[in-house]
Sequence to fold (120 residues):
Amino acid sequence: QVQLVESGGGLVQAGGSLRLSCAASGSIFSINVMGWYRQAPGKQRDLVAAITRGASTNYADSVKGRFTISRDNAKNTVYLQMNSLKPEDTAVYYCNADLYRYPLVRGEYWGQGTQVTVSS
Fold:
């Protein structure tokens, strides 16, 4: 079994910052890509940022220059530092991992989601 557990969401005023964390645990052999997605009410789930095992990153245009994704491979953990938050960043944020679990079965896993609310 593999689990992704997020933490760090909450309520913040516009212009503020939050840091999300997501720790993967279980029978993990290696993690290829870790990422963050978000889903606002009535909208589809969209990619926010992703990072490969080698630390190559990809960001949605709407968060470039404000959000930073990073990971600690030794801890199977990914982070999302969110600065200069805007009300339109309000959403449920989901952690995602593309990984190999024992016995070398590849799969995609999701966290349970953490709410981020930015007030104006």
